[in-house]
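A quick aside before the break. I want you to see a complete sequence-to-structure record at least once, exactly as it would be stored in a machine-readable document. Don't worry about memorizing anything.
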Amino acid sequence: MSVVVPVYRGADTLEALVNELASLTNPFRTPAGRTARVDEVILVHDCGPDDSDEVIRRLAADNAWARPVWLSRNFGQHAATLAGMASSGGDWVVTMDEDGQHDPAFIGPMLDRAMTEQADVVYAAPTNRAPHGVLRNQSSRWAKRSLRWLTGNRDAASFHSFRLVLGEVARSVAAYAGPGAYLDVALGWVARRITTCPVLLRAEGRQGSGYRPRTLLSHYWHSVLTGGTRLLRAVSLLGAVLAVLGFVLALVLVWMRLEDSIDIAGWTSLAVVALISSGAILLALGVIAEYLGVAVHMAMGRPLYLIVGDPHDGALGADDDLVEHREPS
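That is the input. The structure line, written in tokens, reads:
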């Protein structure tokens, strides 16, 4: 197995997680009696605001199976996860958060579930409430349920950052997923079978979440836009319904006018019709513009991530007395 951990603010929590994973680098037995081993732990540095880079360097120096992957700047959790997947070599790839919320002890049961059900992807299915506020937990449940309808993805309600993915699938998705693609949506495009495994979530090892409401809303909206064209179809249906209502309303108004039941002014009716029509048009244009924005963003060729060398060993980390000064020719 390869374990991929995107690291943004892991200075206080990453070492404890890696120490837990250390016991799995030797062959171990799953609950069903299968033999497995974590061959590498890939720590993807996503250029966070703390000293995570120093922690990653120390862990890589102390453990031969800990491999750092350095990104040129902060690209976000999904891009960092894909970068780790692209750098993996295991038969299976496990993705985990850095904050200690995901317990490595459940990697074995997740593998058993994958083998038993012949699944390409296994998502963790928490049996306890996430260690967040009531509002965030409820919003998360609502968002996942709405994604199932908006994208047509039956597995949208199961999306979770603690996942086990078949190595070939993980690396293939990392190779073709564009900058606008949502990781779990992209997995759903190619995975033959997706299932879940019950797990217990632990408390986060740090104070406060690394995600602000704006970031969570952005993740949700990107998953909707990249999940398919069902939202466009909903807008088309809305336009058709409004068109039928408008036609019926026109017939009613003509009949009432013939019956002398309407004054000549009719400003209220005109205003209502104008507002409904303009509102529907603006809504449709807004959704279409969002889809066009995603398409243009992908067509521009903006990289999803860029793997570079350790900045500490490169030009950014070189001492002044080691830099050769060259006179311009």
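Two observations worth writing down. The longest helix spans residues 267-299. Residues 3 and 41 are 5 Å apart (CA to CA). We'll return to this after the break.
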